[in-house]
Amino acid sequence: MEDFFEKYINTVKETETILYTGSVTAVKGLMIECNGPYSKIGEMCTVKNSDGQDIIAEVVGFSDKTVRLMAYGETKGIQAGCEVVASGKVLQVPVGNKMLGRVIDALGRPYDNKGPLENTGYYPILASAPDPYTRKEIDRRIVTGVRAIDALLACGKGQRLGIFAGSGVGKSTLMSMIARNTNADINVIGLIGERGREVMDFINRDLGEEGMKRSVVVVATGDQSSICRMRAAYTTTAIAEYFRDQGKDVMLMMDSVTRFCHAQREIGTATGEPPTQSGYPASVWDMLPKLLERSGTNSKGSITAFYTVLVDGDDLNEPVSDKVRGTLDGHIVLSRKLAQERHYPAIDIMASISRLWHRVTGPKTQEAVDKVSRLIALYEENKDSITLGMYEKGSNAEIDEAIEKHAAIEALLTQKETDHCTLENTLKILSAVSGIEIPEEESEEETAIKTKSTVEIIRENKMDDVATENAQSADDSTEAGTENAMADAAKAINLLGGVSPQTSNL
Predict the structure, then answer these.
(1) How many CA atoms lie within 13 A of 257 on its CB side?
(2) What is the DSSP track for 135-148?
(3) Cα–Cα distance between 498 and 11 in angstroms, integer?
(4) First to last CA, the chain
(5) Per-residue pLDDT tens over the stretch 207-263
(6) pTM, entire model
(7) 210 near 228, Cβ under 8 Å?
(8) Which of 320, 333, 465, 483 could in theory staple to 351 by disulfide, Cβ–Cβ 3.0 to 4.6 A?
(9) Cα→Cα distances 236→56, 91, 228, 310, 437, Å
């Protein structure tokens, strides 16, 4: 009986009894200006439209007595004098285990026509990153099901990586492969600024029924307001944080961070912020690391995050790419050249890096990765002379091996979109290509837990160095002692008249 009344009791507790109101004075592009209400930055307000429909808006700035709002929908129908009611609350998103399999919008409302959400509570979309002292160490490997990543760019649970590429190179396809094949407990996927057509394509064609069973999808299409697109990124992160706090290993995927930055640029321009790099206001560079740092581990669970970055003009050094790459724990670069060669996924191994791969892999796997990476680099370095027939076999043993194993390496790095490759199978192929035997136990998730930390290895090496020095010192003292003994013996021989005691017995 208590459970029956609980939701009604919570509704009563959350109801504001005193509401502050104001009135619209102007609408300037994306911005709604009003006289009042008494409110704070980030507070949700309701604009009473002239046609009887309510418009949800958020407070984004002030100037004297003027409050500036950004609407979560069309501003059509708003006129001077429309009433504005402050809610007294910032945006919160509904959370609960029954959200799995659902598609919601930036405000946490159902987007899939499956009825109301059966949530158990609310999480604020604006939150701080976990305290560094409470973050668990990243020492468990996560499986993506993509051979090129699992073999040469291994990731840990709680690691954050960026997928960098220009348009049409395969970011969304790679993300869907990871969503279907990962061994994470739950997927939380944010489609930020996507084309309307791609939303249902991703849900039905790429993710599928099995993938949706353990996923929550947040959608803000490109035609929605900039505040919607920007807040959808925070909503996605808040839902992932809820499941992490339940002790789950969460896979967070956001497509794309670039459109989040574009949305904030539009908001910043509308509020009068001066532009900086590439027209982006300073608020973008402040908000970006705060958003990205919220993923990762905390004391309860983990959020492994893949953020796609739409690289403007295929320039990896443009401002957004440069900032994201410097904040995350690794980057996967998709090459347009490889995509044109029908090499899928079009991952440029030499341009990509996982900063924590050595922490979640075993020693033999690391040897194999180093060997294969070296062969890839050698082949690319000498590709022109090889393809033109200028290279003579036998000139260099390493280059000969790179040529011989090129086809096998290509087979390792390419994969059909529908293929699923287990970690065990991936390591077997890596072992065969490298010629280095990888033991079965290195395919376990906890492989890195059994390995020694850098400090422990250094400490042991220092102890070994001391032992070696002591042994060398003992050898030196023995040699010195022998030399002294020989000198003493020579003196004794001289004292004996030049006759050796040994020879005198002969």
Answers:
(1) 32
(2) PPP--SEE--S-HH
(3) 113
(4) 114
(5) 888 889 899 999 999 999 999 999 999 999 999 999 999 999 999 999 989 999 999
(6) 0.85
(7) no
(8) 333
(9) 19, 13, 12, 19, 42
